[in-house]
Please model this.
Amino acid sequence: MSEITWWLKRTLLYIIAYTFRIVLTIVFWGEQKSVPPARNQLLLKSAKQLAKEIREGKLKSEEVIQTYINRIVEVEPYINAVVQDNFDNAIIEARRVDDLIESGEFSIEQLSEEKPLLGVPFTVKCILRVKGFPETAGSLIFKDRIAETDAPIVSIIKDAGGIFLALTNAPEFSFSLETDNKLYGRTCNPYDVTRTCGGSSGGEAALISSAGSVIGLGNDLLGSLRVPAHFCGLFAHKSSRNLIPTEGVSMDLPPILKKIHTAGPMSRFSEDLITMMKIILKSEKTMNFQKEVDFKILKIYYQTKIDGAWVFNTEKEIDQAVRNAALHCNTKYGTKVKEIKVPLINKTNAIVLNSYYGRVAFNLLAIATNGKIKNLNGIQELIKMLYGKCQFTFYSLIPACFAKWLLKDNINLVSQCDNWNKELENEFERLLDDNSLFLCPTLPHTAPYHNESLVSYGSACFVSIFNILGLPVTQCPMGFDKHGLPLGIQVVGKKGNDMLTMLAAAELEKAFGGWRPQMDTTLGNKKDL
Model:
């Protein structure tokens, strides 16, 4: 790409973005508000703490479950995150847990070892299967489909004693950074309901961040755990490739997408990520669950920008958050830190579109609908959309029907992108070892207004690159921007070194506060045009 072409594309991006911001600022003027603050102290305890107190008889599981049910009822009018609840059954299960503990049949040590989440509520993104609950992929065409089995990761958490509380919203077919569909509607950001909660694990992120859930499960194909966690101020972990079971999603993914797809945990507290990963990997021997990290021998590399034509400049607060994380480790422990630039990261969008998405673009609709719909007239559907007659959302229709056209100029780059991919893998293999980390933004901006994410897809390269590389990444909240919106960074490690990224996130939580509850006041009018 010539320098002139690069600047023309970048200028176009900012003209479109600026126009969106003006229009949407006017549309949402004066409407900004957050969910009410969580006042019950039970809502401010981690899942690990709750499980311990339930085992020891200091807390009743029924009380915990009822408290979370009450909180969901309180915040749902603001965020619209739950697509179907399991309240009645959850109360029944909680009473059984309380009876079991009172019986003294099992010791506290046995329960801790065999049922580490006994009596603790958890929620699940609707793209993952939960037996007896809707398996809709957020689409009208699957509105009557019910899951016959649990996804393996859901089954594992249930077996650990977790009580399933609710199924949460996602974009149609997970094709969007905005959680909105025609079946369940739009989910909002709990810190400012005029902003998106992100996608595609957006309902899960919004509910957990609102203290309507303590832990949850989502999945991540090209950033779907980390983006909403960043927008909603949470911790989330994308595991190393092939580390945890990823089956049980509502779409039958082809091998090329299975390779980059993973499922994983989301939480308000870093210790819960570690707890959940230990449970999921209980039989695995590839993970070293060491208890401490010697930050004195660590090496931390960081990069704050990606120079792509369609990638936004990193906002000042996010740039500073990356630097603050590195500086903290250097100041407190003497950790060696170094700002670097990995030039091939700039090729991420091309690699994703051509090496992966390009190979499935021509049958993407069939993949998303499990063969139920193989062909669709995109122009006709767009016309129907103008009259409110289209059964699909705009976010799913565009990639499903127009991917071939969008990629026609670059489809011959597949071989070149394979080479870039390999070079990038080699670069990170040289960079990262057992005692090194890479820090970078999760996205270059905080949560945009609803529908404003249409111009943000190019910036998703910050997260999608690590799906391509198969590296472990922990999204870590690092405070707020000047508008009161959460922001986060990614902590990246060597393949298989998941525990190090999560423990580093735990250190940053202690230093910078991690998740923080919402206030019950409006955030004020946003005048940043």
